[in-house]
Design a protein that fits this description.
Helices cover about 40% and strands about 20% of the residues. It is an alpha/beta fold. The structure holds guanosine-5'-monophosphate.
Length: about 180
């Protein structure tokens, strides 16, 4: 039974929302809290969604080998603290990482035994709608984001399982059933 599960997928697909539903509905799953240099958004609490750290602290964590993987995304650094994850895994607790594709590839290199789940949009049109939803960005920014989404969607065959995010709670439930009852 895989104890470590990595959830990844294109940006805009709703990974954060599905993981928030896992936290709410399935307290038996331990969700890793990443370190990031990005500023908290309204409603986010240090130590809950993320550990918010400055760039010097992040660089020190990288240097000291404290992160299982790390990546830069949209100008900010993100990484998975190694020690708390290893503690839970040693206790036999099912653990979930929600990370970007670069991070997922790094974890695959160091932990090939983990379960890799790709969160997919219901359709390309729906992903376009989610990525362009706010309608406030300049067209070249939107175009760049859509190009990036096309590249990210092409990573799907690298994953063991695909969960379609058509409904947040249903997607969270399917994800957890893969984690605990493969
Ligand atoms: P956001 O800033 O919107 O919370 O997250 C931006 C991106 O960073 C998302 O794709 C999210 O999956 C990814 N991310 C969050 N934590 C980590 C992490 O620890 N490592 C990596 N590689 N990506 C992460």
């Amino acid at each position: 039974m895989p104890r470590l599960t990595v959830l990844s997928g294109p940006s805009g697909v709703g990974k954060g929302t599905v993981v928030a539903a896992v936290r709410r509905l399935f307290p038996q799953i331990w969700v890793s809290v990443s370190a990031t240099t990005r500023a908290p958004r309204p409603g986010e609490t240090d130590g809950v969604e993320y550990h918010f750290v400055d760039r010097d602290t992040f660089a020190r964590m990288v240097k000291d080998g404290e992160l299982l993987e790390h990546a830069e995304f949209a100008g900010n650094c993100y990484g998975t603290p190694r020690a708390p994850l290893e503690r839970r895994l040693a206790d036999g607790v099912p653990c979930l990482l929600e990370i970007d594709l670069q991070g997922a590839r790094q974890v695959r290199a160091s932990r090939p035994d983990a379960l890799f789940v790709f969160l997919a949009p219901p359709s390309w049109e729906e992903l376009v709608r989610r990525l362009t939803g706010r309608g406030t960005e300049p067209p070249e920014v939107v175009a760049r984001r859509l190009d990036q989404a096309r590249v990210e969607l092409a990573a799907e065959p690298e994953f063991d399982e695909v969960v379609v995010n058509d409904d947040v709670e249903a997607a969270a439930t399917r994800l957890v059933s893969l984690m605990v009852d493969p």
